[in-house]
């Protein structure tokens, strides 16, 4: 069984509905990645 694009979108929508503050989670992940990249450059 392969996972199609529509199934991935459906899972993301369910995740947004369950967690509600999905945008805040994305912002925190983005900040974490930025900090990680900055530490790699040093």
Automatic annotation (TrEMBL):
The keyword Cytoplasm does not apply. Gene3D superfamilies: 1.20.5.3310. It is found in: Membrane. Keywords: Membrane, Mitochondrion, Protein transport, Translocation, Transmembrane, Transmembrane helix, Transport. It is a single-pass membrane protein. The chain crosses the membrane at residues 6-26. InterPro entries: TatA/B/E (IPR003369). Its main location: membrane. This is TatA. It comes from Teleaulax amphioxeia. The gene is tatA.
